[in-house]
Amino acid sequence: MTSSDAIPHSSPFRHAETDRDAAPQFVLPLVVRIEKTAPPSRTDALETAARAVLVLLSDERSTAEDGEWAEAVRDWQDARIRKVVRRARGAEWRRAQTLPGITLTGRAAAAEDAPEAEGAPAAEVRVFPPVPLDGWPKELAKLQVSGTDLDDPAPPPPPGPAGPVLWLSPEVKMSAGKAMAQAGHGAQLAWWELDDARRAAWREAGFPLAVRMASPERWGALTRSGLPVVRDAGFTEIAPGETVVVEGRSPAVFRRRP
């Protein structure tokens, strides 16, 4: 996954002078809980995954110079920015909880104004510090990547006024797991667009954001707007191309690029 070239110098999405492919490759693992009889709604899972990435990026274990995850996060960001979503249920999910990481619970099921989550449990996503591409912990390596096909019982409501909107391409068909990874890319790109003060405000607000599918007409306008764009490298499931456009809203405001 890469993004637009016009990105602040501090951003790991910026094309570096060194070859990112030559650096040791790492991946950010995310695990979504999908019970057979009670799967979460798709939109809640996507938004929860996006927030999980932000919570890990802002955690002191990642940001402090001597944080226990800091080196792994730096190594991950020095190479290609990869994320992989796997699913778990029952005992698999309980075992995943024993590994160092952060579990986030979605908001949609508890929100009265979220008809798309009616009858669905809140999404649960656990994010782990980056691991070598070929060095997954055995508890996670056993989990399946396939089987993450989730649906929304009803169309999601319009995005709220706070936080960025991560617009998914209507031209790319993705499983929920792949879309969760793309939403995570978009959230990370949004994070790197902000200065420290706006990052702190966004975190204090609980990282409000929305993930929605753009209409074909809106997608065309978004991709021409100069807003931050996620471009997937095409390693898994889909061909290389644009997958997400990040549209900013208060308190996290992202500039349109010239």
Write structural notes for this entry.
- With 258 residues, the chain is α+β, with helices and mostly antiparallel strands.
- The chain has helices at residues 42-58, 60-63, 70-78, 90-96, 138-141, 176-192, 196-204, 216-223; strands spanning 2-3, 26-33, 83-88, 102-105, 124-127, 131-132, 165-168, 210-213, 229-232, 241-247.
- The strands form two sheets. It has a five-stranded mixed β-sheet with strand order 1-9-10-7-8, with helices on both faces.
- Helix 1 runs parallel beside helix 6 (176-192).
- The chain is globular.
- Mean pLDDT is 87; it is low at 1-17 and 109-113.
Low-pLDDT runs of 5+ residues are 1-17, 109-113
Overall morphology: globular
| Ends apart, CA distance between termini | 23 Å
Mean pLDDT, as a whole number? 87
How many strand units?
Answer: 10
Strand order of the largest sheet: 1-9-10-7-8
